[in-house]
Design goal:
heterodimer, A: mainly alpha, B: mainly alpha, two-stranded antiparallel sheet, 23 helices
């Protein structure tokens, strides 16, 4: 009997790096948006940071990278 | 927010989530930290009145705090991968048996003394990241290697890293080093021997502990005395580094004259070869440059001229918890330990290339390994520091500490104080941040209860020092060089219980000290 294939997307090394770059750069844009009172943009940026955290939490890691 | 069992447990929830995922479900550090971050944001917004603006500024603050750590982490991993590529780790592992054929002594040299000495150069898990691979090279399993190096240097965190944690305690409490240092040095001195004993048992069993016990006692006494003497004389910046260096020298001297010297050709063989000296030269350069930047005031002033910081406004939750407006800790790009590491990497690269220690394609291999291990570790650190920032700006951390301090009687509070330090360090990954978070709270509680303030603050920073090594943020870094990325939960499961042993000893000592009338001081 064939083992069940898992088609759930995984977090590859490249995706992890992209996430890292986003999590490092977005707060700077967020800070600028907050200081210049651009609240809609700030909310959007905070939403993106939250989405990044959710991706880290939900997607399983790919050990092959 | 009123303090009751329900609100206290809510405040604790993000930490419970991280602990449960890492210890129970063996989740990776970054996933557990991300889960902690999401739960902290949910608890803050749903129960603590944390508006999106408060949470957004908390994330900005978290990034700034993370940058300080990540710069060191990337630099340390770059240095580690360079020396590994050149063969230095293998060479050190091969040289150690010639110093002593005794496995227990070898393990103490690396995971008790060398790791503590490196803590003087820079913390944040880097000493573990450097020493754990050497133990793996000696044949230890990676999990045990990280656990041993973590426990081995826990006593040196407070006065290590140029005593940044101790300086933070002085800064937030307004008390001088002369008042705080003696009791802090004594409490941490008491943790030296248990740390070494645990390492000896883990590395070579009870038999290994039995026959190294006299040596352990001697070296512990020397290190404790040196650390105390330097700390009470205003040299707290160098107290742990000098103490561990003194310990290393005493052990090597002892090995030359005692029965531990099993090899008849010991003296000739134990002298490092010129190749080995070149291979370990990056660590010598790191020490030299690190001390020069810190100890030469004109050089330090010149390199520290450029500084960046952010201005954060006063933040208030819907429930009225106020975080005062503040300037973030300045980032000095040129005198930062991360820059010192990068400079060391550059010089070491030139030396290795000149000596022919780097084969073709070394640069590409080093870059790939650094990105692979540092990428995951960085995400974990950002998320975990984010948890701490959200909890602090929402008033959750304060509520946790208030709950602990109010539910404990005056008599027992000195025994509780180190655990509050542990909590802060576990949460933030740093003894320094634990002191910033809880220093004032501990001082105020001690004053209200009529307890000896320096003793309680000493217990706080001792707990922070011992507890920081089991924080997810540090364990993630420690695991990154021994192939345990995404398996940090395995380390945490073994580390937490063992690391609590020295904490309990410090707690008992603080309690006895307080009961015996140290409180009068």
């Amino acid at each position: 009997m064939k083992p069940k294939q898992n088609h759930f997307p995984t977090l590859s090394l490249r995706a992890s790096l992209l996430l890292l770059i986003l999590e490092l750069s977005l707060p700077f844009w967020l800070y600028t948006a907050l200081n210049s009172e651009k609240m809609v943009l700030a909310k959007l940026l905070f939403g993106l940071i939250t989405a990044g955290m959710l991706i880290i939490l939900i997607l399983p890691e790919n050990s092959k990278g | 927010m009123p303090l009751n069992l329900f609100t206290w447990l809510l405040s604790l929830l993000p930490l419970l989530v991280v602990m449960a995922l890492m210890l129970g479900l063996r989740a990776s550090g970054k996933r557990a930290s991300a889960a902690g971050w999401v739960s902290a944001v949910l608890v803050s917004s749903l129960a603590f009145g944390g508006s999106w603006k408060v949470l957004a500024y908390a994330q900005v603050k978290a990034l700034w705090m993370s940058l300080d750590v990540l710069y060191i982490v990337w630099g340390a991993l770059l240095l580690y991968n360079l020396v590994h590529e050149a063969g230095a780790i293998q060479a050190i592992s091969a040289w150690l048996p010639s110093v002593s054929g005794d496995k227990a002594v070898q393990v103490l040299l690396v995971s008790w003394l060398m790791v503590s000495f490196l803590q003087g150069m820079g913390g944040f898990g880097v000493p573990m990241a450097v020493c754990a691979p050497i133990l793996v090279g000696m044949g230890y399993c990676p999990v045990l290697a990280v656990v041993m190096t973590a426990i081995g240097h826990a006593w040196a965190v407070n006065f290590g890293s140029m005593a940044t944690a101790f300086q933070a305690l002085m800064a937030v409490t307004g008390l001088s080093g002369a008042v705080l240092a003696p009791k802090a040095a004594i409490l941490l001195g008491l943790a030296i021997l248990p740390s070494g004993m645990i390492v000896a048992v883990l590395g070579s069993g009870w038999r290994g502990l039995r026959h190294t016990f006299p040596l352990l006692c001697l070296v512990s006494l020397v290190m404790g005395t040196v650390q105390y003497t330097l700390a009470v004389n205003g040299l707290w910046n160098l107290a742990a580094t000098t103490a561990s260096l003194a310990g290393l020298l005493v052990m090597l001297l002892f090995l030359r004259i005692s029965h531990f010297r099993q090899n008849p050709a010991f003296s000739a063989q134990s002298a490092p070869s010129s190749d080995l000296l070149v291979l370990v030269s990056p660590y010598l350069i790191l020490m030299l440059v690190g001390f020069a930047v810190v100890l030469i005031p004109p050089l330090n002033a010149f390199l520290s001229r450029t500084a960046f910081s952010l201005t954060l406004p006063e933040l208030s939750t819907k429930l009225g918890w106020i975080t005062a407006a503040e300037q973030t800790r300045p980032l000095h790009p040129f005198s930062h330990p991360g820059s010192i590491l990068l400079f060391t990497v550059l010089v070491s690269w030139l030396i290795y290339t000149r000596k022919g220690f780097l084969s073709e394609g070394a640069g590409r291999r080093i870059a790939r390994n650094v990105v692979k291990s540092a990428g995951d570790a960085s995400l974990g650190v950002i998320a975990m520091v984010g948890v701490a920032a959200v909890m602090t700006t929402s008033g959750m951390t304060n509520l946790l500490a208030r709950g602990l301090s109010q539910s404990i009687s005056k008599t027992l509070y000195p025994a509780m104080a180190p655990f509050i330090g542990v909590l802060g360090a576990f949460l933030t990954g740093s003894n320094n941040n634990s002191n910033v978070l809880f220093g004032v709270l501990q001082m105020e509680t001690a004053s209200l209860l009529g307890l000896d303030v320096p003793l309680i603050l000493a217990a706080q920073t001792a707990g922070g020092s011992l507890g920081s090594v089991m924080s997810p943020a540090k364990v993630i870094v420690g695991c990154s060089t021994v192939g345990l990325s995404q398996k940090e939960g395995l380390v945490m499961r073994r580390l937490v219980l063992l690391d609590l042993i020295p904490v309990v000893i410090v707690a008992a000592a603080a309690l006895i000290w307080s009961l015996l009338g140290g409180a009068g001081g």
